[in-house]
Amino acid sequence: MQYELKTQVIEPQRQTFTHIAKRYGDKPASRYIEGSIDVQPKEHFQYRPTWDPTREIYDDSYSVFRLTDAYSYLDPRQYYYAPYVTARSGHHEAFATSLEYIEARGLLERLPDGWRSVLAELVLPLRHLESAGQLILCGMARFGWGATVTQSAAYSAFDRVGNAQVLSRVGIALGGGTTDLLAEAKEHWLHDAPLQGLRRMAEETIVETDWGLALLRLDAVDRLVYDLLYQHLDDEAVVSGAPAYSLVAQHMASWFADNRRWIDALYTAWREDPELGATNAALLAEHGAAAVDTALEVVTPFAARIDELLGGSSAVDRITTTAAEVRAAHTGAAA
Amino acid sequence: MTLAPENKTKKAKKLSMKARYEALTRGLDWEPSYVEKDEMFPHLDYEGIKIHDWAAWEDPFRLTIDAYCKYQAEKDKRLYAVLDGFAQGQGHLGLTDASYLNAMKIFIQGVTPLEYGAHRHFAYLARHFAGPGPRFAALCQSIDEIRHMQTEIHTLSNYNKYYSGFHNWPEEYDRVWYLSVPKSFFEDALSCGPFEFLIAVGFSFEYLLTNLLFVPFMSGSSFNGDLPTMTFGFSAQSDESRHMTLGLEAIKFLLEQDEANVPIVQGWIDKWFWRSYRVTALVAQMLDYMLPRKVMSWKESFELYFEEQMLGGLFEDLAFYGITPPRHVEDAIKEKEILSHQVYWTLYQFSFAAAFTTSAPSDEHMDWLSQAYPDTFDTHYRPLWEKEKKNIEAGGRHFAPGLPQLCQVCQVPMLFTEPGDATTFAQRESEFEGEIYHTCSNGCQWIFEREPEKYRQAWLPVHQIYQGNCGGPTVPEVLEWYGLQDGDAGEYIGSRDHRNWQAWQGEAAADTATPDETKAGA
Amino acid sequence: MQEQTTADDPQTKGVRDVGVVIQESENNRPVIEAIEADNPGCSVMHSPGLVRITAPGRIVITQETVEEKLGREWETHEFQMAIVSYFGNIQEWDDDEIVIAWDH
To answer: Which of A110, A290, B518, C80 has the fewest beta carbons under 10 Å from its own?
Structure first.
């Protein structure tokens, strides 16, 4: 009997859920779409939050950046949970392979002194910056409006923990299997002058309650720091005999490229909103430019220290150029 | 894929699981000096909880990001393979009966949105707790909850293509009367401070009642030929065991940090036990009435998963800290004999305004209920159904004429009876600032009177209908506002799903009023 | 619908049961066998799709026994692929063993 049934053609009553069909027509929808669109409750909230009685449980007034339709923002990577963890599983496996290779060949022990100092003094302390990113993005995952936004933010927050662990594992390897360098890195983070601007920015952004502004600031710093450490210095490492650095950098760089895709898509959605687009563009120009200016200010001493340690790596020049490009992208002016 | 450990035999100097976990997850915090710590974590004081040492938080799972991603990716690979195979092979035709899916309709409408809410608010804990250990555990749970929401949607998406009642769940959650039961429950938790939320959802919901809620339910899926639901259920439960651990660790952590926390936590346990328990009323009727092939009765699962495991096990452990079993637990125990019958009888009468269908139990079904409930079913409930059988034979299936009055706290219709007396309806009244509020039980009245300023804010669907805020004054207008389509509501026999099912099954299954006991199964 | 094996009642002398629920599948059978081997006083109950193992006071899952039953390497994190639920407290989750017990 079961055999017969399989040959029977059964017409579906509908191809997708009503809320999906209203937007895209009644046709089969992707798992990203069905698992993300319109899933946040939006009306008849029962009680005011005790932690902020002026708002609703979910509220679009937690940022100056708003969308007429929250779901005009879609993650271009179409990450729902399954492809997200699958991608990250591959990412961490690839990093583990690199680290095994680095350790098997003793490449960390063979790093030139300047490079070792860059890693220990400047790169390892950034695990704390990743930890700040985790907090900032968790705030966005809670206070954002719409499930496509909160989902992207939560994955990105989780990524920051992953990044901190990648840096920590490098630190453990560089410290000969001990956590000594991680403890030292924390002291650098707390006290070294080249890192204080970054730490101040991190603390001030954590307490920013507007998740959109907080994201802009985090992103501005990321764009200078990641480009400098994992693009620019990667090239430098290749030519100056520091392959261990390059092997680590490639993984951070590939994560960064992936992460920027959802953020750029969000900026685009803000700018192209049919009703709020002009307002959002003006806000992006104003706050985006301010975020880049602050980022350049706080990353400059960090870059200068790199130049010092490596004997001229044009790190300061690099971040200055990047900052000008990012600023121009926000303000819509030519670079 | 084999899941062999990485280079286990190499390197003697590898850190142990514990040392590695601590190195990677702890020590990331620092004392801020450019802003005040209170400014960074502003919500930690107002509930009165005192934390002296956040580092005392233990996370027994010791999962690092690489291990988390590896195992979660593997779980999803297995799950989605099952979903794809089931969809391609028209697996839905192997269910015991299309009426089984009523349980799953309530699931996607009433439970899936809670998973989303949990994603949001565990992110809140991951932002607002001042310790990296609990923050990381909360962040894992925040994205796990996205997983649960999505695997539920993706599992039920295939049924949505062929059956009624699944298609408009997000809007229904925000609007439909019986769905304000889970919605008001969860929004109550979302509006709490971080520690109360942790006890409400992390402990009371995820530890105290999770087994009762989900385990029999997933066995029910397995027993009724719903392989995808069983698979997502078990797969989600494997995350759930991590969440249970978070809940249990949370309560012990709070109790150990300061003695002054004990009475506060006790109050939350008292409140959230009853609040969560009232939501399980929907599960009780699913188990006893909606599964064509029965797994275990509500009473049996309550005894096993709550009385034996929680009262007999957990609360003995918590007694060490001076914690006593939840207030009103005796009322819940008395109700185990009658809960599912009273709830289903109500849903049966009001399903004309619901996104699921109901039907009177068959003779065989009633015999099973008599066996499962020897002290109550034949005395109180069989007579109702025998009378209804006559109505149906006379062509007059009973629907209630109006709309039910809802409890101000749990928002379940006022259908419950006095503890220990199945014939007298319970109704409690409380006055607050000159207004009278009605509650369904001692538990809900106690909760109301603890925080009247909160519960008077409730968006009670039936009140809202009478006030004209739900599409219009007539039933058809309200149903349209609910987004219901033909076939979603009412009686199952003769419904669109029933007619389709009969056509698809051919003559062999023509008599589905009494589901075929030989089909499907574990 | 449920069958119970190894049936002595463990609810004696105030020792409270702890338990673990595992999905019944080909993959998990060696894990279940390992738990039975390492916890001689346990009771095993089967219900659709599930195996529920209870024991007075304590249940231990050891890496060595699971690896022996499985015939391959197995890290304790993998237990997350099998577990559906538990009651008790997870006291230890280390490289070599997992222990479920009540604290007090």
So the answer is: B518
Residue type for B191, please? S
Question: Alpha-carbon distance B303 to A319, whole Å?
Answer: 65
Closest CA in chain B for residue A127: B28
**Claim to verify: residue B91 and residue B126 sit in the same structural domain:** yes
d(CA A215, CA B178): 39
* B272 and B329 belong to one structural domain: yes
- Any domain includes B381: yes
For residue A147, list chain B residues with Cβ-Cβ distance below 8 A.
116
**Binary contact (B191, A57; C-beta < 8 A):** yes
CB contact under 8 A, A34 and B7: no
| Chains linked to A by 3 or more Cβ pairs within 8 Å | B
Torsion-angle region of B472 (φ positive above 0: left; ψ -120 to 50: alpha; else: beta) = left
CB contact residues (below 8 A), chain C span 12-51, against chain B: 16-19, 21, 23, 47-50
pLDDT in tens, B397-428: 999 988 889 999 999 999 999 999 999 999 99
CB within 8 Å: A138 and B139: yes
Residues from chain B that touch A15, judged by Cβ atoms under 8 A, are 161
| Pairwise CA distance, residues C8 & B520, whole Å | 33
Domains of chain A and any CATH numbers: 94-331 (1.10.620.20)
* Mean pLDDT, range A182-203, rounded to an integer: 98
Angle subtended by helix axes A277-310 and A193-206, to nearest 10: 160
Tally Cβ neighbours within 10 Å of residue B473: 11
* Burial class for B394, CB neighbours closer than 10 Å (0-12, 13-18, 19+): exposed
B30 touches chain A (CB under 8 A): yes
Q: Is B468 inside any structural domain?
A: no
- Judge whether B88 lies within some domain: yes
End-of-domain residue from the set B344, B370, B393: B393
At C84, the amino acid letter reads V
pLDDT band of B221, cuts 50, 70, 90: very high
pLDDT in tens, C4-54: 444 344 444 468 899 999 988 888 999 999 999 999 999 999 887 889 999
The boundaries of the domain holding residue B380 are 362-393
Considering the domain C15-101 in this protein, what is its CATH number? 3.90.56.10
Is the Cβ pair A85, B72 closer than 8 Å? yes
pLDDT digits (tens, 9 = 90+) for A21-77: 999 999 999 999 999 999 999 999 999 999 999 999 999 999 999 999 999 999 999
Count structural domains, chain B: 2
Residue from the list C11, C17, C84 with its beta carbon closest to the beta carbon of B237: C84
Which positions in chain A touch B13 (Cβ < 8 Å)?
A: 177
Residue B387 reports pLDDT greater than 90: yes
